[in-house]
Specification:
Two copies of one chain form a homodimer. Chain A is α/β, with parallel strands linked by helices. Chain A has two domains: 4-104, Aminotransferase class 4, branched-chain amino acid transferase, N-terminal domain (D-amino Acid Aminotransferase, Chain A, domain 1, 2-Layer Sandwich); 109-265, D-amino Acid Aminotransferase, Chain A, domain 2. Chain A contains seven helices and 14 strands. Chain A has helices at residues 15-19, 37-51, 58-62, 109-114, 140-146, 195-203, 252-265; strands at 4-6, 22-30, 33-34, 72-80, 97-104, 116-125, 154-161, 166-169, 173-178, 181-185, 206-209, 221-226, 230-238, 244-247. The longest helix of chain A is centred in the N-terminal third of the chain and has 15 residues, at 37-51. The radius of gyration of chain A is 19 Å and the shape is globular. Chains A and B meet through helix 1, strand 6 and helix 5 of A and helix 1, strand 6 and helix 5 of B.
Chain lengths: 271, 271
């Protein structure tokens, strides 16, 4: 019942590959210390609760950190339900499997400074409240959305749900400022509730809203962020065909929220 | 670029486990011959086209069959995009990985004869037309739906989409007869288009319809089926709390469609 911590391969019949039956976290690590660690643990625990997968002991989740050297790295943790069960039925008891990998990492300081170009994606996310917010292993929608562009100048793609509401980007959350107020899409129907988003919601007056893409017409600033890259100001928004539909000049308003995010991640403020 | 055929483990970083980035097929095999093989190959090819995964050569997909002995077995094929890519972005070129397992199999003749008890599930399937019909590896919805009951008397659970339309059961398709006409849910928004369903659509006058659960109130017969189990008549339908809401007496109308399905699978007719 305790998750096996290992770096080796996945068993042939692991339900992680058979059904995407599991969860993952990608964690920024500086000099062996994980950033936003409580937020990552909280999301993983919530996912384990929803899926009914026993949560590994904190010690098992932290064990890989001893192998992280100086500087920045990314710890990717994957937790699956393990093998067993008849078809979709759950194995009882389950034998969860934990695997991890540490990789060197460097964020894009140029994107912090200059901002990024993003586009709307054609794909719309299915609505599944039971899985909303979780970082689970069923990510084909993200894969298909990310395949909508190949040019290196486009940094991210914005995703709406099947009813047309803005949700997130393919691997980042959204925040915007409208009439001086900060807003981010509610994630109770679909999307991944990022750990950087959680921290920003705690530390800044950001309102969770239902919003359609037209809401972006009037915003003073738009950001994308996650716990690895920090916060990117958006300088240009394209439609799904790659035609520009909005430009923003990166200014002091952008830098204020960015500074808050970067403080949480130990990144420098951008001036 | 050719898929590696093997029975060993999955590489640690395979996108099959990271994202559920792949497809599978479960094939009934009799005396080394796969049943509904052209339908399985066609669905796999369609999935490869949608996901942009190179389709393995037919010879690679058929290679495991030489290990099947006499009698009935199930061949499970899993094809993933392999490792690589930056995050969700596709690796170019991709290095697809094919794994398989043969297992002995016996269908439930008692369920053929007596029919089954099924229930409505609470979970509703997200609407994702891009993935509809495919047997892809993102199956957490099926896992969660199957976890809604644990009693052995309940054979399957019926699933609706997020807008309330009937779609399928957790691992089977639905057919019913109403006013003498055969109907099955359209699968252009979500659900898996089963190979037995494909064969029945070719060989019987079955209409693909949009239908809500209330449509079942007036049907003369309801069946669940897939290419392993054949066709089960439904004798009792429960609500999501397990309370019976409909009973059917299994009769000649049930047996006619069942005989057609069983002929396609080499199963005996049921009298």
């Amino acid at each position: 019942m305790t998750a096996e911590t290992a770096k080796d391969d996945w068993p042939l019949e692991d339900r992680g590959v058979a059904y995407g039956d599991g969860l993952f976290e990608t964690v920024l690590v500086r000099d062996g210390r994980p950033l936003l660690w409580e937020q990552h643990l909280a999301r993983l625990a919530r996912g384990c609760g929803v899926l009914g997968i026993p949560l590994p002991a904190r010690e098992a989740l932290e064990a890989p950190l001893v192998e992280a050297g100086e500087g920045l790295s990314v710890l990717k943790l994957i937790l699956t339900r393990g093998s067993g069960g008849r078809g979709y039925a759950l194995p009882i008891p389950s034998d969860p499997q934990l695997r991890w990998r540490l990789s060197p990492f460097a964020p894009s300081a140029q994107r912090w400074r200059q901002g990024v170009r993003v586009r709307h994606c054609r794909l719309r996310l299915g609505i599944q409240p039971m899985l909303a917010g979780l970082k689970h292993l069923n990510r084909l929608e993200n894969v298909l959305a990310r395949a909508e562009w190949t040019d290196a100048d486009t940094a991210e793609g914005l995703l709406c749900d099947s009813e047309g509401r803005l949700v997130e980007a393919t691997c980042m959350n959204l925040v915007w400022q409208r009439d001086g107020k900060l807003e981010t899409p509610r994630l109770d129907r679909c999307g991944v509730a990022g750990t950087l988003r959680s921290v920003l919601l705690e530390r800044a007056p950001i309102h969770e809203v239902d919003a359609f893409p037209s809401a972006l017409d009037g915003v003073e600033a738009l950001w994308l962020g996650n716990s690895l890259q920090g916060l990117w100001p958006v300088a240009r928004l394209d439609d799904a065909a790659g035609t520009p539909i909005r430009h923003w000049t990166i200014g002091p308003a952008h830098r204020r929220l960015q500074a808050l995010a970067h403080a949480a991640l130990g990144y420098p403020p951008v001036t």
